[in-house]
Amino acid sequence: MSIPSQTLTRRSFGKLAAAMTIIGGGAALGGCSAGGGRPSPNTPLCIMAINHVWSQAIRKHMAEFEERIGRRVSMSLLTSDQLANSYNVKLNASATDIDVMMVRALQEQLLFAHNGWLADLTDRVEGDAGYQWADFLKAPRERSVTGRMVLSVPVVTERPVLYYRKDLGAAPATLDELMETALPLADRRGNFFGFVGRGQRSGAVSMWSSFLYSFGGDFTGQGRSAIARPESIAAYEYYGRLLERAGPPGATNMSLEQAMPIFAQGKAAFYVDADAIYTNFLDPKISTVQETVGFAPFPAGPAGARPFNIPSWSLAISAFSLLRDEAWQFVRWASSPEMVKRLQAEGIPGARQSAWSDPATLASFPADLARTMQTQAQIGLGIDRPDVLQVGRARDIVGRPLVAGILGQPVAPVAREADAEFAEFLVRDNRHREG
After folding, report:
1. DSSP 3-state assignment of 268?
2. How far, CA to CA in Å, does 349 sit from each of 204, 356, 368?
3. Both 243 and 191 in a single domain?
4. Record's superkingdom (predicted)?
5. Those residues with Cβ within 8 angstroms of residue 20's Cβ, 6 or more apart along the chain or in another chain
6. Contacts from 59-64 at CB under 8 Å and sequence distance 24+?
7. What is the pTM of this model?
8. Is-contact 8 208, C-beta < 8 A?
9. Which domain CATH number covers 366?
10. What is the pLDDT of residue 285?
11. Cβ within 8 Å of residue 317, ≥6 positions away
């Protein structure tokens, strides 16, 4: 998924502020250490984060943490673009006025690691028995590792959900059933569609990944492009056919922002997207399907049901921080078993198995959604896009055959062209990674 655009629209994950919000700091990172040497006891621990429901929730408990460590905390809440720009400027300059960083392990971690911007947390997470690193869900935990080093700790996770209209029938258990059910329900003259989903070239790639995996395909294999393999072409063709024949017109221009309202307004029977957006369909201000929406696991394909289960946001420590011990205390506290359970009970899906196994933490979710999330948290894969330095460029290449399929064009020739382009890209990307 295109994480920036998702973050901007998920009501369940809070509205992003147009400008920065500071907790405990007066101005942007005000009072944070910017020089050499050991900061004074009056220098706050500085956290840079996305303005997100998790950040908003954790700051409500910040006084508890400040009392614990005896140091003030300055927490900057930024829009996605502001956060990316701030990291680029400050970390390129080896600035010491960032201690804890909220990062996207699948979008930025590989690049940040390559640049030497992230502190190695391996000894801290594995050497602290009370922290219970093994309690984290396997897929998000594995995605926290780059170059055999733990460089981040997941705090928010997400999976795909099959949103469906319960008044139109049961949820399909397989992709074949989804196609068979969606096609006859489509009535374009009546402005009703059997299926809606993302179709925009780059933005659709992450959500399409579950279709790819469930067909037995992958983005790469043994370090080489795998998008022209038969299984991958079958996944391209399936998704293209589903949107071409059962989806709305103009699907190739649809990102989350365009697709989600179509289902929310009762104009589609099925919709696959992240579980994080579920409250959109329960909000009477924007939804007409509150009473009829159902939540089901991703349908099984030829290779079974293989949805993603990713860490959408994680905590890392800047390699340039002068307060690394205090930064780790914050990461440990904010991602502890107790805090994860507390926040998950408020509707924020965390990354610990102990939280997912506790019925009390799931009470805030609709019952069928909670069951779906539990199931997919166990079987999901920890990645939903190519694992490369230049993620945006890779998604653009991989998305080309998707567009062809949605337009009803032959997919295989386009997939072979994209495969050749992606193969060249991987060579360049690996050179940058090694250089």
Report:
1. strand
2. 23, 8, 15
3. yes
4. Bacteria
5. 28, 76, 77, 78, 82
6. 59/23, 61/339, 61/342, 62/23, 62/24
7. 0.88
8. no
9. 3.40.190.10
10. 95
11. 99, 100, 101, 118, 119, 121, 324, 327, 328, 331
Confidence class of residue 391 from pLDDT cuts 50, 70 and 90?
very high
Query: Do 302 and 315 belong to one domain?
Result: no
In our burial notation (b when 16+ CB lie closer than 10 A, e otherwise), range 397-412 reads bbbbbbbbbbeeeebe
Cβ burial, residue 431 (10 Å; 0-12/13-18/19+): exposed
Query: Contact 311/140 with Cβ under 8 angstroms?
Result: yes
Q: What is the pLDDT of residue 3?
A: 35
The amino acid that residue 357 corresponds to is S
293 and 195 in one domain?
yes
Whether residues 334 and 296 fall in one domain = no
Q: Are residues 124 and 211 in the same domain?
A: no
Rounded-to-integer distance, Cα 154 and Cα 52, Å: 14
The angle, 0 to 180 degrees and rounded to 10, between the axes of the packed helices 230-246 and 205-214 is 120
pLDDT, position 4: 35
- The amino acid occupying position 68 is R
Comparing C-alpha atoms, which of 204, 206, 196 is closest to residue 272?
Answer: 196
Does residue 197 contact residue 247 with C-beta atoms inside 8 Å? yes
149: CB partners within 8 A, 6+ apart: 113, 120, 121, 122
User: Where does a domain end: 379, 404, 419?
Assistant: 379
> Residue 14 is part of which domain span?
3-157+310-379
pLDDT digits (tens, 9 = 90+) for 326-339: 999 999 999 999 99
Residues 253 and 397 in one domain: yes
Among the listed residues 256, 214, 373, 233, the one whose alpha carbon sits nearest the alpha carbon of residue 2: 256
If we measure between CA atoms, which residue out of 429, 377, 360 comes closest to residue 139? Answer: 377
Adjacent-strand bridge partners of 380: none
Q: What is the pLDDT of residue 377?
A: 94
Rg (CA), the chain: 22
Residue 392 and residue 245 share a domain: yes
Q: Are 345 and 365 in contact (CB under 8 A)?
A: no
pLDDT at 430: 77
Q: Tell me the C-alpha distance between 176 and 300, whole Å.
A: 8
